Amino acid sequence: TALIGSTYIGGSGNDGLNNTSVLSNNYGDAFRGEVILDASGAPIVCTSTQSTNAPVTAGAAQPVFGGIQDAYFFRMDPTLSNLQWATYHGGNWGESGYGVQLDSNGEMFFSGGTNSDDFPLTGPSFISAPLGSADGFVVRYGTAGTFLSGTRLGTSAYDQCYFIQLNEADEV
Description:
By secondary structure, this protein is mainly β. The chain has no helices and eight strands. The relative contact order is 0.18.
């Protein structure tokens, strides 16, 4: 019943608002993103940014803004007084971050869309090359914000991954 913390986060550009000229195909795409809580009550955020100076933490998987718009992932402590980790995730054009889920070990799975031809992936990917004018993506980060794996998803048409869910076996 009491406010235990509040904060602003972002940079000098639009944060939390998807640029509809970069990736937009459906009503409400400009406002998509997600906030969930981990087991300790720490918020984990999947969103988008057009800021070249959004805060990132030491050792960020992608410490530098990639294109017109990047997906932006971060976690704070439960009182919102400490940024535990934050990173950009994007290529040379545009990405939007839409969904986030945790597996039973606390690893984070993020979903969204990309139209960059150099979307960052690591390790073996199910699909690594661009498929259509926009592709969906799923990426996996460790509990400390280490980029572990990712893939594009889609067809030769316009595709994005708006939501993500894991089953009881931690499969996407």
